[in-house]
Write a structure and sequence with these properties.
The complex is a heterodimer of chains A (about 110) and B (about 110). Chain A is mainly beta and about 110 residues long. Chain A contains no helices and 11 strands. In chain A, the strands form 2 sheets. In chain A, strands 2, 4, 5, 6, 9, 10 and 11 form a 7-stranded mixed sheet that branches. In chain A, strands 1-3-8-7 form a 4-stranded antiparallel sheet, with no helix packed on it. In chain B, the strands form 2 sheets. In chain B, strands 2, 4, 5, 9, 10 and 11 form a 6-stranded mixed sheet that branches. Chain B has a 5-stranded antiparallel sheet with strand order 1-3-8-7-6, with no helix packed on it. Chain B starts with a strand and ends with a strand. Classes of the chains: A mainly beta (about 110), B mainly beta (about 110). The interface between A and B is medium-sized, with 28 and 25 residues.
Chain lengths: ~110, ~110
């Protein structure tokens, strides 16, 4: 069964460092998303991406964040200068149609900023 | 805010019993979805109910939607130990490309 894969599963980084979280969405899907979940809290939307551009972003997704689909397969989330409060589980998701349909989530990358 | 909000419950039930959890939201939706999350793992889509639907079944899952009360319920019948997880509702609104998740209900099924 097709699945969304994310790497790495866990990343520890120093505050102020850049991190890139990687995702391989399901191959025939057209919409891609990043969500995050701070420990014990809600799953929060970060950004959606369609047709090689951001279609929507939340207030969390500030200038420190960027997304890219560099090669038609991978979908990446970059955090330029990490802060302690960026520590969270980051989930990539994809859907065949827009967000108003079933989304398939990866297993997540646990980011720990120290 | 336009977010699904579950009743903040932690359910502990015996295997074979039914588990019910609720979700409310604040503005008109396109659809409402339920997801399951096993501890430390990703979110697994369970079921989607559209705003013009009132009830939907999938295996042992039954979802209802009451748009007049802006609420939904998820019923898991004949629970199994493997149903132990957190369950989230997520709402999708017209005109935007995001899901708004509630806080989740933790369900523990005791064998």
């Amino acid at each position: 069964e097709p699945e969304v894969t994310q790497t790495p599963s866990h990343q520890v980084t120093q505050m102020g460092q850049e991190v890139i979280l990687r995702c391989v969405p399901i191959s025939n899907h057209l919409y891609f998303y990043w969500y995050r979940q701070i420990l014990g809290q809600k799953v929060e939307f970060l950004v959606s991406f369609y047709n090689n551009e951001i279609s929507e972003k939340s207030e969390i997704f500030d200038d420190q964040f960027s997304v890219e689909r560099p090669d038609g397969s991978n979908f990446t989330l970059k955090i330029r200068s990490t802060k302690l409060e960026d520590s969270a589980m980051y989930f990539c998701a994809s859907s065949y149609r827009e967000a108003n349909t079933e989304a398939f989530f990866g297993q997540g990358t646990r980011l720990t900023v120290v | 805010s336009q977010q699904g909000e579950e009743d903040p419950q932690a359910l502990s039930i015996q295997e074979g019993e039914n588990a019910t959890m609720n979700c409310s939201y604040k503005t008109s939706i396109n659809n409402l979805q339920w997801y399951r999350q096993n501890s430390g793992r990703g979110l697994v889509h369970l079921i989607l109910i559209r705003s013009n639907e009132r009830e939907k079944h999938s295996g042992r899952l039954r979802v209802t939607l009451d748009t007049s009360k802006k609420s939904s319920s998820l019923l898991i019948t004949a629970s199994r130990a493997a149903d132990t997880a957190s369950y989230f509702c997520a709402t999708a609104y017209y005109g935007n490309n995001r899901l708004a998740f509630g806080k989740g209900n933790q369900v523990v099924v005791i064998p």
